[in-house]
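Bench log, entry 3. Co-assembly request; chain sequences pasted below exactly as received.
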Amino acid sequence: MSFLYRSTRNENETATASQAILKGLAENGGLFVPDEIPELDVPFEELAEMDYREVAFEVMSRMFTDFTEEELRYCIESAYDSKFDTEKIAPVKYHHGAYILELFHGKTIAFKDMALSILPYLLTTAAKKNNVDKEIVILTATSGDTGKAALAGFSDVPGTRIAVFYPKNGVSPIQEKQMVTEKGKNTFVAGITGNFDDAQTGVKKMFSDKKLAELLDKKGFQFSSANSINIGRLVPQMVYYVYSYTRLIAAGQIKAGDPINVVVPTGNFGNILAAYYASLMGLPVSKFICASNDNKVLYDFFATGTYDKNRDFILTSSPSMDILISSNLERLIYRIAGNDPEKNAELMKSLNETGKYEITDQMKKNLYSFYGNFATQDEVAATIKTLYDEDGYIIDTHTAVAVSVYDKYKAESGDATPTIIASTASPYKFTRSVVTAIDPKLDSMGDFELVDELYKLSAVKVPAAIDEIRTAPVLHDTVCEKEDMEKVVKKFLGI
Ligand SMILES: *Cc1c(COP(=O)(O)O)cnc(C)c1O
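Structure output for the full assembly:
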């Protein structure tokens, strides 16, 4: 069976998995979605005995049907190796009455590594399978973490180049330093004078510009995307939900088939959508708890059925979630509309033209397994302090948004279902916010002094990703207006 992906905006635009990975985005702004999600027909007890790589193979082989077993195993083995600082790849820890799924043990200490360490292998394999002879240019907008994870993944990968755009004043100092010190010879990094949505809109515009595509083609290039709009990122993210569930079975915490809830700190809606896709594959998730920061568009959407991005963009202590247009929500909209590309296209047109749309009552009913809430910056700081006081465990600001929302959900619902909370970044990436949440007096310290303070507080080894950038020289200093993104990309490519 060669399982087809289809555009959320045009049912006639189909692609195999490898083609969808190569293209990143469908025509006219649509996203590729699987026609159906195959059942994961391996008993959970069996999965519980497998390591991360084996579970990854079982999940991904169901979704990437035109990859051979050999190709897929090669991608998986190359990605999930000693780049991760633990054999477990994604360890599960019990704190604050919940299972914290630590997704930050990869090279750049954010959960983006879970998918971006495999995407370059999937993409270059897909290029080979489809006889692509062009150099692939990865265009990426980042709210902070995708940028470095994509740079690390694609750095010096033959046949690829990568350009990353980040909001100049919208990322943490450590996030910025990680990106601008990137050494790969095929890399380009620019700050833009705008926010993440501006960066994402600029990138999407370049993707759908036919004239630009022709020029690129003539010069031997082809765009692809490392953002979570690429199914090559989404599918690898399904793996760790299945993996963590089966770890709980292996540890005797739950029995195979028992329901769980998942809490996901959400920005672009990729991570939580992966959990939803995993449930369509058979993972028994009863509630998807969508946690937002002060940019609470999604909370309002789940509460009212209206998505409205017409509001102020707020810079928060969880910058990777400072987003008003959650791209991957479109995939859920498509699904709750009954896989209806026309309805979806109509709503997305409205979003584009008026900044908002309203779903039908039936669609709203189809969202019954989702719950949304948000946490303010004060609540985030208080949550970090609470967990530290409880047992010395230190979480980052994004994870704290999730834990705070988990507490709200539990208080409101009384639901005691075992819960997995996605922990999306190492606290070392957001040192200032984390350390000052525990001890506000330390705010006068420099960024790297705070790293040492965090080590004293947590006794968790300083990750290599942080040590590397302490003294690394800045190699990228481009800052451009959001209108000039195309110009700087052309300059980078020499066209
Ligand atoms: C990207 C990111 C998120 C948001 O994930 P989405 O898939 O965009 O919803 C949350 N936390 C951290 C640390 C991130 O880097």
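The CA atoms of residues 7 and 32 lie 5 Å apart. The longest strand covers residues 160-167.
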